[in-house]
Amino acid sequence: MNPWGGGDVYGRLLGELRALPDFAGEVSVPARAARYRDYPLWVLPTVREAFGWQQLYSHQAECAEALHSGEDAILTTGTGSGKSAAAWLEYLNAAATYTAKAREVGVALAEAKPTALYLAPTKALARDQLHALQNWINRAGLDISIGTADGDTDAEAKRWVSSRADVVFTNPDYLHYVLLRQADKWRHLFRGLHLIVLDELHYWHGLQGAHIALVLRRLLRVAAQTGANPQVVMLSATAGSLTGAGTNAFTGRACSVVAADGSPAGEHTYLVVNPATRNAGTDSETPGSSLAAAARVTARSMFLGAKVLAFAGSRNGVEALSSMTREFLGDLDPVLVGKMAGYRGGYLPRERKELEQAFRSGALRGLASTSALELGIDIPNLDMTLTCAWPGSRASFRQQSGRAGRGEQQGISVFVPAENPLDHYYAADLQRILAEPETTVFDVHNPNVLLPHLCTAAAESPLTRSDIGVFGLGSTRVFDELTQAGWLRRRLRAGEDTWYWNLDRGENPWDDIDIRGGGEQVQIIVADTGEVLGFADATRADYTLHRDAIYVHQGRVWQVRERDERVAMVTPGPTMLRTRPWDEKQIRILKVSESRVFAGGELFTGEVEVLSRVIGYDLVRLPGAEFVSSHPLQLPTRILRTHATWFTIDDVLLEELGVNRDNQAGALHAAEHASIALLPMLISCDRWDLGGLSVPLHQQTDAPTVFVYDGLSGGTGFSEHGFTLAAEWYEATHRTVAECDCDTGCPRCIQSPKCGNNNKSLSKTDAVALLNHLRIALNSAPET
After folding, report:
1. In sequence order, which residues have a C-beta less than 8 Å from that of residue 472 and are 6 or more positions away?
2. What does the pLDDT look like over 524-540, one tens digit per residue?
3. Quick check: pTM over 0.70?
4. CB neighbours of 520 closer than 8 A, spacing ≥ 6?
5. CA separation for the pair 457, 512 (Å, rounded)
6. Which residues contact 53 (CB under 8 A, 6 or more apart)?
């Protein structure tokens, strides 16, 4: 089947991609035939007719049966496989059954009308799914009112939704800050709550995953207190392992996992276009870079008639990719220049909605995006995806590539690796891309996450011993500790211990929780006009928005003139210059949780305190990142208490491995970079979620030491998982560095874009020797 029409464009495009000088291989997933099942007998005829299908895909029937039997369910089937229908089938049937029963008796029923709550990570996805559900409701002729409640909903509409809507579409943020905080106003929703839909499950991991899991548990707690017992269905095309012994990590409840996809799929071809390795120190916007290669492929594909969604790994990457694609289109067909745009976080809501609509309608034929558009927003007739730089996980890559060739259409997905070890690891063997998604990791017992949620739950309604199980605790010890610290008050009510929120602390514990786990935002404002240009995470602002930093937005270059903790004032900046920050860092070990001895060293995991400060920046000139000048900065020291995994190695052993004392720092530093880059191979995280430090002599370990730590306060569970899988982790790290064909180290093996001292003091040869010893020793060491 040719999805584009007008001749074999699909074949011609594949031919052109294969003929590129940078073409580095391909792998195809064959077409898959559909597997069908009859509707369950309990589904009413009006509901069957609403969907308009004679039969269901096998996974849709399996999911609906699980929900109907009172189980929670995780549904992890491919993009475009009808997961939404599987989620809503049982609810629509329950609502239709209730309506029929009410009509039969002719009076209002004593039980509450079934209601449902849909949660999505983005407002755009919620809007898409609302329209689909509304169509099914209309076709079935059901008396179900649906509405949206989020930060964009006006006050009058919110009042109607809270009192009348049977199905509420929102996001976890609004659920936390409004619905749970004002539960009495949402009693219509909570007392009849029959179903909770959590969409794009893979999106929630690390600190965000822990927050969402606890918000979900608080929601189930509030629903139970109003007499409801809803089922939870979680949807994702690519969620990794989320269950242990049948228990779901989000809810702590038993859960049925439906993963066998019964929908049909066309052949999907994955190709690698791998630009030549660049010299150390060159910039990502040079003509030979991955971004330039991605722009050429995007432009050529659009010229051939394809509708292309191109993903870049950063906001700056999106700006560069869209700009360079327009330049290439200018040479191919100037008419197409206006049909290419960029899309990323940091844009204002109005900008994002306009871009979404233009891409759907075909007014845009190409769009460069961050991961913001990898979610299930409906984009019709999308022919090809391009992923420039590994998106951090196989789950994200599969989400991105799954946007092309939906249903039985053929699809093309191009991977253009950037210059880093994880990209190199996957580009070297495409079969690795098709492996199972990484394990989803988060820690609901992170005290920085759990304790504020317990306080907030106590403010919603007093905690009791029954809440021990809700929050996965073994006893009331944490409740008592919060009482001793003055956050809660303990009382005896009806002969039972009860813990209340201490009102002397204030009446608003909800605002003490950052659901997205990203911390505060710095607002970027144009100095001359007062226009709000966008936002940036405060945790990264010292690096990207320090005074005189150069910042790119929608292809325009700005320079920071003034900056405080909340606002960065910018003016137009020099188009051919960029700033590159450098920092200094030290780590204090606070607590060792576990350790493991291996030949010549020891592996640890535990709590640490990271002290870091941006101390200056280099000014470089494009296109070759030519050094211009260095400038010092006077910025405060930031303190991060988090979790880390680290190893120590005997310095005498290093010399026996051929690593002399002068090269030890370079060996450790290179091993640190490579291990940070490769850890996301095992778990659902990104190298930007991690930090590291290597020292030839650490003051506490009294030995050469390499740390890898979670980049968010309290830890995310990522580094701890690395401790558990250390043998596999360092096996892959050694292989990637050793097999890289460069001589002295490059961005594909040991150089890092995150490096605080701009990749100085790196030794590839010595790192290979160290990593080889680690992989052998860790595979031989007993697991304790």
Report:
1. 252, 444, 445
2. 999 999 888 877 877 78
3. yes
4. 514, 537, 538, 565, 566
5. 13
6. none
